From TrEMBL, chain A:
The keyword Cytoplasm applies. It comes from Sparus aurata (Gilthead sea bream). GO terms for biological process: coenzyme A biosynthetic process. This is pantothenate kinase. The keyword Calcium does not apply. It catalyses: (R)-pantothenate + ATP = (R)-4'-phosphopantothenate + ADP + H(+). Its EC number is 2.7.1.33. InterPro entries: ATPase_NBD, Type_II_PanK. Belongs to the type II pantothenate kinase family. The gene is pank1a. It is an enzyme of class 2 (transferase). It is found in: Cytoplasm. Keywords: ATP-binding, Coenzyme A biosynthesis, Cytoplasm, Kinase, Nucleotide-binding, Phosphoprotein, Transferase.
TrEMBL record, chain B:
The gene is PANK4. The lineage of its organism: Eukaryota, Metazoa, Chordata, Craniata, Vertebrata. It comes from Sparus aurata (Gilthead sea bream). In the N-terminal section; belongs to the type II pantothenate kinase family. Belongs to the type II pantothenate kinase family. GO terms for cellular component: cytosol; nucleus. Its cofactor is Ni(2+); Mn(2+). Phosphatase which shows a preference for 4'-phosphopantetheine and its oxidatively damaged forms (sulfonate or S-sulfonate), providing strong indirect evidence that the phosphatase activity pre-empts damage in the coenzyme A (CoA) pathway. Hydrolyzing excess 4'-phosphopantetheine could constitute a directed overflow mechanism to prevent its oxidation to the S-sulfonate, sulfonate, or other forms. Hydrolyzing 4'-phosphopantetheine sulfonate or S-sulfonate would forestall their conversion to inactive forms of CoA and acyl carrier protein. Gene3D superfamilies: 3.30.420.40, 3.30.420.510, AF1104-like, Uncharacterised protein PF01937, DUF89, domain 2, Uncharacterised protein PF01937, DUF89, domain 3. InterPro entries: ARMT-1-like_metal-bd_sf, ARMT1-like_metal-bd, At2g17340_3_helix_bundle, ATPase_NBD, PanK_long, Type_II_PanK. The keyword Cell cycle does not apply. GO terms for molecular function: ATP binding; hydrolase activity; metal ion binding; pantothenate kinase activity. This is 4'-phosphopantetheine phosphatase. It catalyses: (R)-4'-phosphopantetheine + H2O = (R)-pantetheine + phosphate; (R)-4'-phospho-S-sulfopantetheine + H2O = (R)-S-sulfopantetheine + phosphate; (R)-4'-phosphopantetheine sulfonate + H2O = (R)-pantetheine sulfonate + phosphate. The keyword Nucleotide-binding applies.
Amino acid sequence: NKSKSFPWFGMDIGGTLVKLVYFEPVDITAEEEQEEVENLKSIRRYLTSNVAYGKTGVRDVHLELRNLTMCGRTGNLHFIRFPTQAMPRFIQMGHDKNFSSLHTTLCATGGGAYKFENDFRTMADLELLKLDELDCLIRGLLYVDRVGFNGHPECYYFQNPSDTQSCVKKPCTLEDPFPMLLVNIGSGVSILAVYSENNYKRVTGTSLGGGTFLGLCCLLTGCETFEEALEMASKGDSTNVDKLVKDIYGGDYERFGLQGSAVASSFGHMMSKEKRDSISKEDLARATLVTITNNIGSIARMCAVNEKIERVVFVGNFLRINTVSTKLLAYAMDFWSKGQLRALFLEHEGYFGAVGALMELLKTTEDP
Amino acid sequence: MDKSITLPPDEIFRNLENAKRFAIDIGGSLTKLAYYSTVQHKVAKVRSFDKATKEAASDKLYEISVQEEVTARLHFIKFENAYIETCLDFIKDHLVNTETKVIKATGGGAHKFKELIERKLGLKVDKEDEMTCLIKGCNFVLRNIPHEAFVYAKHADSEFRFQTTQPDIFPYLLVNIGSGVSIVKVESEDKFERIGGSSIGGGTFWGLGALLTKTKRFDELLQLASKGQHTSVDMLVKDIYGGSYGSLGLTGDLIASSFGKSATADKEFSKEDMAKSLLHMISNDIGQLACLYAKLHNLSRVYFGGFFIRGHPVTMHTITYSINFFTKGEVQALFLRHEGYLGAIGAFLKGAEEDNPNQYSWGENYAGSSGLMSVSPDMNPMQRARSGTFDMLEMDRLERQLVNLPLLQDPSSYIPDTMDLTEDALAREYWLYCFEEALDGVVKRAVASQPDMPEAAERAEKFRQKYRHKLQTLRHQPFAYGSLTVRSLLDTREHCLNEFNFPDPYSKIKQNENDIALKYYQKAVKSLEELSWEERQFALVRGVLAGNVFDWGAKAVSDVLESDPEFGFEQAKRQLEGSKCLKTTHPGFLLQGPPHKCALFFVDNSGVDIILGVIPFVRELLSRGTEVVLASNSGPALNDVTNGELQILTERIAAMDPVIQAGLREDRLTLVQSGSSSPCLDLSRLDKVLAQVVRERQTDLVIIEGMGRAIHTNYYAMLSCESLKMAVIKNSWLADRLGGKLFSVVFKYEVPAGKPSQGSAAVTPS
């Protein structure tokens, strides 16, 4: 076989989450089946027959890309995530399953590729191929957009973002995607201006990202997971926590064209003890989410104007199951730019780095 | 908190008797009150004796009279909201003859206290837009207070690096960090626009901080933050990468995700660490947005204000750090010394529009202003108590508008002062000691200047206490009034003397010295005329320098003059004989070649200096066909000759000397006032008339004389025409610093680059 030997993995080890993509070939010939070593089979079976791994690993079944052709092979692409904290256990498993005996290269991106490189080597006798996370992100994103999401577009936007009643999610494609401002919201945020697949720059970043949302939520509400935090946020009312323009001026601040409903001071009501005693955890979670999201929107918008780019693509796992934020971002882009900017989102939010890493594997020539 | 405090009327809410035009800015915790008042104080005037009465009135040259003068002053007082009722009562009790009906009000608390103010003062509260007031106030301080803006550098020798006043203050960006953040672009006095903002501001720090740490007060939160370690709460680049993210140039210590560790770590975080992390998060975020807006609008001057900043070293540091990081040093974060007063100043100006305060120049009165206090969380209890009570700013309306000397090479980079004592600890130590040492003498002189007034001694004692207190303050907070300089120390002393009605302690000495010197004038001129041209050039320069020895401001000289009243011009010349530089440099080059069109001469002392040193030199210039503008102080300072005195002196000289007479008659010799009442000289704040004369006459030579004007200030001043700086160093410490001895001489002739040089020499003391 001309193509790479299996298994095909791409891995993105972030600050909070590890994203793993696994290509499951479905065109295996009988001959191949016979030659396939036992632990390769068992890996495939383990990954494809489960949707959860250990206590914290999850396969996002709904994201699976079916009947994909990569490098001349047909198969399904699986999307798996687990907390970066579980990395030592994952490496241990690699050792236990004798992963190093397989004829493959483990392509890894994200900061963890560097941080855990030595652990992989010493604990599991594995040599990582370390890849730049932004290279991988862009490559993976463009690839998934190109192949589509099982016959549907990967990309979507919100129609009528300024009106909660008629705001609807609309699929679209990233045809002629350049230039785009790519906002990757993981634990922190990176903002890239992308002019072509290989020509991009990191414009700026902010430390107020998904990690901040979850971190603050845990401290403020005692919750433990992202899902829990989002669940609470969906039920809360941030205006009990935030001070609005109308709380200060009684209405709009006309001198500056500020609407009364705009947030003047995030957590501003919390300066008063009375107010602190009267709010719920849900309100706090919601306020945290709104604060972080608006701030990212604001910085992204300024970057778009400074870089003269009208298309702003938001990705990253902060947006997973987080329609509060996606809608808020869509609204913020539209409202503050008076319709000049459009916010775009992608279904595979946080997995593009891992996909990009996998593509690098399929590109490498030094096949053993 | 004790709400019923006794207010000392001598110190706070001064001059209420004539107060009018009140304005009040009530913030979340502090109230700022502004009013306009008039101050009656004594001024010394000189007047020529009438010919008819001259015989009777002894043989004095002119008479000195002390008159009452009324000047305008702006008072600004800052105090905690808790005292508001006490203060309003106090004001009501002390307001006498005011016709004021309205008080302008701004700030978030204005509506809350509206009823109270109206009831207590019987004034109608008239609300003004907060941001408009803020901008108006900002423009006012930037224009009128030198060293208003500063850069904060936590680890430098001096934390505060004051900026020179820009000839044009616009455009700039004001980032006001109150409970939220407003980013305002200011393009002119009346044109400004809120170009952006953020909801993550001081309220977020306070509100979120209170939730996280159960600490209620803003100050306490800052204090917690200053003790914390953010790295235990934040996820750093190295926590993700194990080191730096090299290809992007992100160092390992950079924060990748604020509070990123608090989601996963199963431990309790300390209040301090969380507060610190929060502070970084908010400061960085504001800094980033400010940079994005500055870049978008192509602005490089960015001022930060609002209660989040208000003198807190912790927040100034984190904001500065953030701006440096995001702009790679291209934009500096600027802070304002009177940031807390902007709203009150602006509200006041709104109410005073019919008086058009902006047509005048105003000056900070050092005697009546508290100066910048450090409110560092780690500061000592004395300072803390201070900042918690009353803070004052007083500004005097200057009689004339002050502008740049049109001959400054680059007005935006001109720094009057030679030495910044804020940064030079050794020099600071010396000069503070020096001024403290000289205080007894000044007090003695002040009392002696008013022999007919029995309470003079008591006032002089008050002056001593006030000035000594200022010196003590400056020892601890050298940055209190901007950069500490010899000039600011001298000016503070003059302000304090004026405050206690000692307008001109040296008036009698000056009168006496002028009298004596005038008697020698003809003889001196005659002996100069007998010299050959070349000899005369030497003699003229030597004359100016010898004259400059007569400086009562210099202890080395005043000691001699006190002990030897006979000490004269000839002794002074001999005193300078050791100065080799006079012999090695040919002063003739200056007066060689085609005559200058017009020379501007900034003069120094009365008596021998002006009469036997400067005037003969001026005479030589006039004889060559050069017009001369003599610039002297508008008001008294030490024994410096004032414009009023110089008018009389030149008249008298003209009566004896046809050259001077012709010069005056033909308007080739003009006397103008500098607009200053300082022994030093700030070429960026000169009388508008002077600037006009300089321009009209196409001045092509500037002569600056004396230690205060040519050494303490302007030693490095770059002018666009030829210049000559002449002085005798009458302070051994300074002489030592400059590499010379006491009574060394500075004779610094400079030709600007690109101009045809007639020979250039910068002579430092031998």
